[in-house]
Amino acid sequence: MDPRNLAPLQGTFVIVLVTLVGQGLTFAPLVRMLGLRANETDQARVRNEARSAAVEAALARLDEVAAAEPDSAVAVNTTRTQLLARLARYRGRLDLLEQSGSSELPTSPAYETALRVRRTAIDAQREELVRWRDSGRLPDEELRILERELDHEELLLPRRASS
């Protein structure tokens, strides 16, 4: 290629690079400075739509597993029941978000009660495991493993009720 033909290409490349990098580096600080945030209701809606789609994909895959592995019927049915309960919960959240018509996350007393009850149950499990350890029935290493399981379960619970 003729070096004289490269000059316009280099200039174009520099303009594109400066434009993309310049805007890319200044966009986030500009958004923060203006105090702009994504609508929490829209974010919750997208999350719950994605959760619903993921559960529906899992349910479809369970049908494949059931067909391919006839001896998996009990495991498939147990998992299907759990997934259907999740799907109902996610669809209920979506209904609540649709009815809200606000940018604020709506609250549901039943959902908040369910979260509080679930956290109470996790706390009770944790306290019982510590009692077992204190009485010598559960070694420290096993306690740590079981506590990590409870920690994971607790982390799956939303911080905000309607998310």
Distance between the termini: 57 Å
Biggest beta sheet summary: none
Give average pLDDT, whole number. 84
> What is the general shape?
elongated
Oligomer: single chain
> In terms of structural class, how would the helical and strand content be classed?
mainly alpha
Total number of strands: 0
Q: List the helices and strands in order.
A: HHHHH
Number of helices: 5
Low-confidence spans: none
> Helicity, in percent?
over 70%
Write the layout of secondary structure elements.
Blueprint (H helix, E strand, L loop, with lengths): L2 H32 L5 H29 L4 H28 L8 H26 L5 H16 L8
Helix pairs in contact: 2-3, 4-5
Write a structural description.
The chain has 163 residues and is an all-alpha fold. 80% of the residues lie in helices and 0% in strands. It has helices at 3-34, 40-68, 73-100, 109-134, 140-155. The longest helix has 32 residues, at 3-34. The radius of gyration is 26 Å and the shape is elongated.
